[in-house]
Amino acid sequence: MRVAWGISGAGHLLLESIEVLEKLKDKHEIKIFLSSAGEEVARMYGVLERIGSFPLVRESKQGHSFPSCGAFNLGKFDVFVISPATSNTVAKIRLGIADSLLSCCASQALKSRVPLILIPTDSKPVVETKAPNGEIFKIYPRKIDLEHLEALRKEGVVVLDHPYDVEKALERFL
Ligand SMILES: Cc1cc2nc3c(=O)[nH]c(=O)nc-3n(C[C@H](O)[C@H](O)[C@H](O)COP(=O)(O)O)c2cc1C
Fold it and tell me: Where in 20-61 does DSSP place strands (E)?
């Protein structure tokens, strides 16, 4: 399959997302769309080089109208996965805002009927996660973050708990 994979600026589920990407690399044609925050955060977690081994679109190198998102309108991808998806990117997608690389790609994907799979970082009332220095801490996603996910599900967006579930979910769109 031709898979577009968005990486937003989240530390949570970042390493697991890259692990899955590396596993799927030989089976699918994958292009990564990396938000500017994603680039910074990946550098902090020491995984930017691994991401750089894929065909890559960097938000930091795009113009304000995100020309690379046009590929979704032109049928170049079979599916768009965003993993990890920050609460910021999820909120924008839910509300129809398209002013960042990933929210614009998601907007074009949805408007062109390309299936969208999200693996949000803020998916349950309590999330335990790890800082770049290895320190473990908890976050408590807001009600609005969880409501966004519910609304997106109702719209037909596939929302998964973990990047490890992506491989199976892709089978639906073969
Ligand atoms: C080290 C680090 C880790 C972060 N992890 C998360 C996260 O797991 N989830 C989240 O929603 N935001 C996280 N953020 C905040 C986002 O990077 C920030 O909201 C950014 O504006 C998101 O932009 P994007 O959605 O375009 O990638 C993190 C920030 C830093 C510096």
Answer: 29-34, 56-58
To test ligand 1's pocket by mutation, which of 41, 136, 139 has the most ligand atoms within 8 angstroms of CB?
41
If you ran DSSP here, which 8-state letter would residue 28 be given?
S
pLDDT tier for residue 174 given thresholds of 50, 70 and 90: confident
Is there an atom of ligand 1 within 6 Å of 86 CB? yes
Domain range for 35: 2-173
Assign residue 138 the CATH number of its domain: 3.40.50.1950
Q: Locate tokens 């408007």: which residue?
A: 111
Ligand 1: distance of its center to the CA of 11 in Å? 7
- Model pLDDT for residues 97-144, shown as the tens digit of each residue: 999 999 999 999 999 999 999 999 999 999 999 999 999 999 999 999
Count of structural domains within the chain: 1
| Contact criterion met (CB below 8 Å) for 9 and 86 | yes
Residue 90 near residue 120, CB atoms below 8 Å: yes
Taking CA atoms only, the protein residue closest to ligand 1 atom 4 is 10
pLDDT exceeds cutoff 90 at 155? yes
Percent of the chain with pLDDT over 90: 99
